[in-house]
Design a protein that fits this description.
Layout lengths: L2 E7 L2 E8 L7 E5 L7 H12 L3 E5 L10 H9 L3 H14 L5 E6 L1 H10 L5 E7 L17 E8 L5 H13 L4 E10 L13 H18 L4
Parallel strand pairs: 3-4, 3-5, 5-6, 6-7, 7-8
Antiparallel strand pairs: 1-2, 2-4
């Protein structure tokens, strides 16, 4: 359904996967897990398009992908955060809207929070069990509410991290709503990983996210 597109900012060229609905609708940036811009992330964009959204997944690894956890961890830790900021801003500019949603998964969940503090065009943020030790969102600059989804069993986005995020958002007066799913593990939304995928939790989060974006994004 979608296609690879290029977009520019500050003299740099970036690429990403774009999926569009048959009629103009709200616009969303989809941010990858630590594996890169893989098929699962592209399929999420396609699913958004089927639901009436324009979805753009920027390629933060500039063409690199992996299926090996050790290599994925290395790619995540090597992420150039200032460059990631340029990618996010360029993606928001490419979508040509004053009301853009952002959703990210794992590493992308933390980058989604980071994005919300970078650009006032982002008016809704969804964080799926976000984690990245070198990405520090500016909560005081948020112009949007946050919807968060977490697993019961998660060595990365664990209960202490969830509590700290809730405290930070509360202190910054950011409206937020968190959901924690019993019996689930980190990356429970990823249906390409049967060892952790939880269909019930994944479908519930999808339904909640669609309503959240519909409530907080302009149709442009």
């Amino acid at each position: 359904m979608g296609k690879i597109v290029t977009f520019a900012a500050n003299g740099e060229q970036f690429s990403g996967y774009l999926a569009e609905p048959t009629q103009p609708g709200p616009k969303v940036i989809v941010i990858q897990e630590w594996w890169g811009l893989v098929g699962h992330i592209k399929s999420i964009c396609d699913r958004f398009a089927e639901a009436g959204f324009t979805a753009l997944a920027p390629d933060f690894y500039h063409g690199e992908t992996t299926t090996e956890p050790d290599e994925a961890g290395s790619l995540m830790m090597a992420l150039d955060v200032p460059n990631a900021a340029h990618v996010i801003k360029a993606a928001a500019q490419y979508l040509e809207s004053d009301s853009v949603g952002v959703v990210g998964f794992c590493m992308g969940g933390q980058l989604a929070l980071f994005a919300a503090g970078l650009d006032n065009r982002i008016t809704a943020c969804v964080n799926y069990y976000g984690i990245h030790p070198n990405v520090h969102p500016d909560y005081a600059s948020f112009n949007c509410p946050v919807l968060g989804f977490f697993a019961e069993y998660d060595d990365y986005a664990h209960q202490e991290a969830m509590n700290k995020l809730e405290e930070d958002l509360t202190n910054a007066h950011v409206k937020h709503e968190f959901h924690k799913y019993p019996g689930t593990h980190h990356a429970f939304f990823n249906d390409d990983r049967p060892e952790v995928y939880n269909e019930i939790a994944a479908e519930d989060t999808w339904a909640k996210m669609i309503v959240f974006f519909q409530d907080n994004l302009q149709n442009s």
